[in-house]
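Extended Data, record Multiubiquitin domain-containing protein
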Amino acid sequence: MVSNLVKDEKTEKVTIIVNGTPHEEEKNDITYDELVTLAFPDFPQHP
């Protein structure tokens, strides 16, 4: 169990280009669902 939520890794801003549109993210990892949301903001989320 992790009791400390402070990350040791430095999070940097990265630019992801989706369908020709740049998106700045402050994460080291991005999920597939997050990427689809960047590409299609009106895409319905699956439960």
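Summary. Strands lie at 14-18, 21-25.
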